[in-house]
Request: fold
Amino acid sequence: MSVAAAAKPPTVKLLIGGVWIESRTTQWRDVINPATQQVLARVPFATAQELDAAVASAKDAFKTWRKTSIGVRARIFLKYQQLIREHMKELAAILTAEQGKTLPDAEGDIFRGLEVVEHAANIGTLQMGELANNVATGVDTFSLLQPLGVCAGITPFNFPAMIPLWMFPMAIATGNTFILKPSEQDPLVTVRLVELALEAGIPKGVLNLVHGGEATVNGICDHPDIKAVSFVGSTKVGTHVYRRATLAGKRAQCMMGAKNHAVVLPDANREQTLNNLIGAAFGAAGQRCMAASTLVLVGESREWLPALVEKARTLKVNAGFEPGTDVGPVVSCAALERVSGLIERGILEGAKLELDGRNPSVPGYEQGNFVGPTIFSGVKPGMAIYEQEIFGPVLIAVEVATLDDAIRLINDNPNGNGVALFTQSGAAARKFQEDIDVGQVGINVPIPVPVPLFSFTGSRASKLGDLGPYGKQVILFYTQTKTVTQRWFDDSTLSVGVNTTISLR
Ligand code: NAD
Reply:
């Protein structure tokens, strides 16, 4: 495979006030195809002045956008969902080229975002307030959910379609204007989604796009005209963003890192469970925040491990855009180095390497960041592979004697993003869902990400801020509740007095 494209790679543009502009920055980074190392584009790290200009345009657009009727807002998102459907294949190809996941998985990434766009088209009923009639004689109280102003979103590399779509559609549908800062590792599919949003009718300045890294993110956290920040990414950066943004008086919600356990009871449906585990551990090369990366084998279910290893061995490692690929490359050379380093550490710390996916042979893509399915058994808390989020196609197995032991192990882990239990026992499932301290629970469902009728509800160290992305919770995140208490006098009403509490009764 040729390593560099002959032509100079295109530059990624900023979107400010409805105009695509070339950044004046001196700091650029290559967007690289992780299967080939081909440079696809160059992305700028926007200057402070460019961020200011984006915020100023969003602030100006808010004056009119906040008063736009429900019907106008809803119809933009109806049109937008149609455009995303029509461009699904094109979007998936862009995503796979820059991120590495397989084409079907890229379509899944887009589809899960599309569901949020569909939900945004229901904004009329979602943003309704409440009314209480006659709270005192002749007095009614009602609530309004009013937009905040300029909001911002900062997104990670692993879902470059879904996560931007978690953010700007609901923020804009509720009447806010938005600054989006996608991952600098794979911004191209996000750019295309923003282009389609403009085509759907989002007016100038309502949606702005800036690129960059630490300085741009800090600039967003500090900017006095940004009212709310939604972040998805690692725990380290999310903790920093939460502190910095809230210190600057903003609302913040940060969805962060994970260590998701999948518990298998011996009474589970064996084939279904093993197949589900393979998909949940190795799909998207393990680069999902909800990947089932830690297997907890209860009692006799430990005997299923050899069958799981054999299934994992058959997975096809190849470029994501090649047909039949199961496991694509990890996103960058740095990610490959980190994952390989953790595998090495697992061996040194005494875990048993049941399947070694390092250095797989991928003919035609020798330069790619590939690591194949890898499985460790005999893993114990305290080992680096248990304590750290590996974020690669590595499944670790811990053995415990009882369901109670499994619950204790998981509740002792600081993370609370996702967990799954495989069983045919209703009683065991009910006990698990009651006692487990994790925000998203799957019963025979390996990756329990809720659809947008609900909100994403990661908990504990996986989340900061009370309200989650999308669903009902995000309506509250992107709005300020105002209550209005009112009464009307007709001409015959006469009341004089200073004691309003009594006169209200
Ligand atoms: P990351 O934290 O490195 O990057 C996220 C964003 O923060 C990017 O836009 C990046 O430009 C910015 N950033 C990076 N370093 C920064 C710094 N020092 N200061 C300020 N901003 C900085 O995360 P990632 O590697 O892109 O994504 C993978 C992580 O995201 C994993 O930990 C994964 O679990 C997590 N994630 C969580 C969820 C969830 O819903 N809980 C969903 C997807 C991904």
